[in-house]
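Q: Can someone sanity-check these two? First one:
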Amino acid sequence: MDFLSQTEPFNGDIVTNPPYKYAEDFIVKALELIPEGHKVCLFLKIQFLEGRKRKDLFKKYPPKTVWVSSSRIQHGKNGNFQNKSSMMATAWYVWEKGYSGPTYLKWFN
């Protein structure tokens, strides 16, 4: 299934770890598909907060909460944890459709 080509509304929350280069597209598409009050949660690099282009994205679609991992998490490349992958600084970015307040920064683990 190609998520970015979906047109059917989705009646629930969306939780995913999208390909980093398509993260912005995933945010916009997910918020388009879900009903008001539901959430989109994306697991992304902490560096996703950077960038002039994403500043505009965050102004238009402010995340409600960014949950920063207080320790680096090992990731399996393409789901393969046999080969040691790099340890990246990551966070859960949480949007709630219809939310327009400040973004809260919190930590987990």
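And here is the second, same format, sequence then tokens:
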Amino acid sequence: MLAGYLSPHAACSECGEKNGDIMAQDAPPYITILIVGHIILPLILFWEQMRSASNWLQYSVWLTTTVGLTFLLLPRIKGAWMGLMWALSLKGTERQ
């Protein structure tokens, strides 16, 4: 569904369905932040309860983990969101 890291293919390579018209812009980053926050925060609190490490070690470990998890999940969540929008026949340009 995605051509690069976050840009969609213009059309599906299997069936030819247009994917470039689906505009999933704001929801995937919000969902990614929500998921990563719910994974990282309990780990930080658990680690702090088990042992207290120096601040520079905690900053380096949690910053690296947070950024890595965000980069890992963002394209997958965007693809899933675009798939949901396609299944519901939404293009992202609808107005209320």
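A (reply): Looked at the second one. Residues 55-87 form the longest helix (33 residues). The two ends are 27 Å apart (CA to CA).
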